[in-house]
Amino acid sequence: MKFSNKELILFDLDGTLIDSAPDLAFAVNHMLTTLARPTFSEDIIRSWVGNGAGVLVKRSLSGKAEIDKNLDANLFEQSLQTFLSFYKDNLCINTQLYPSVRSCLKILKAQGYRLAIVTNKPFEFIAPILEGLQLNDLFEMVLGGDSLAKRKPDALPLLHVCQELNVSVAQCLMVGDSKNDILAAKAAQMDSIGLSYGYNYGEDIGLHKPEVVFDDFSDIVATLSPNYLT
Q1: Model confidence pLDDT, tens digit, residues 101-144
Q2: Burial code of 160-195, b = ≥16 C-beta within 10 A, e = fewer?
Q3: CB within 8 A of 109, min separation 6: which ones?
Q4: Which of 3, 19, 171, 194 has the most CB atoms around its CB within 10 Å?
Q5: What is the pLDDT of residues 165-209, one digit of tens each?
Q6: From 12, 14, 19, 23, active-site residue
Q7: Residue 68 bears catalytic tag
Q8: Which domains does the chain have, with CATH numbers?
Q9: What is the dihedral of CA 99, 106, 140, 97, to 10 degrees?
Q10: Considering the entire predicted model, what is its pTM?
């Protein structure tokens, strides 16, 4: 499949551009250790990633993907602050780019595409990670999960980027690894690409019917015609 007449590409961050699960697991287990609670393997915590820091902490305290409805609110707030404080100081210890991400983003930018990030990750963590991974000069706009009143899977973040950058929905493409990315794109009536390798809770990203599913980030370049701007 070839996309045409696209100007702006919106990317999710965790599970799409970067594998942040090792550092998220490190912070989660630090939080649990301070509470004298059992810790979990990176693989288990990886399956809980994708809905923002608050949900990750609630799942960690619940010990499963399904959040305990009786979870103490004060315990959650205390635990969230512990997690965020530790994670802030350990953002790029073992976090790394997925294969081909840096080179492909540079190709797309050189071809005239405008690039943005729409993630559910707290905004304060995004810039340090982009700088640490040498991606900070590629994106025209960045939105975090706490940047607006609503986050993905709501359409608001995607539509906000369109409005701020003066680009129509039809000229945009959402790229992500999670159902939240695809559902947000559907709600915004925006075309989307699903990536099979990220954090989607063990579920096939194709079930949510993005326009196309790729196993490799580099396939994005092949499906987009050069968009040289004059």
Answers
A1: 999 999 999 999 999 999 999 999 999 999 999 998 999 999 99
A2: bbbeebebebebbbbbbbbbbbbbbbbebebbbbbb
A3: 115, 138
A4: 194
A5: 999 999 999 999 999 999 999 999 999 999 999 988 778 999 999
A6: 12
A7: no
A8: 8-19+95-223 (3.40.50.1000), 21-88 (1.10.150.240)
A9: 20
A10: 0.91
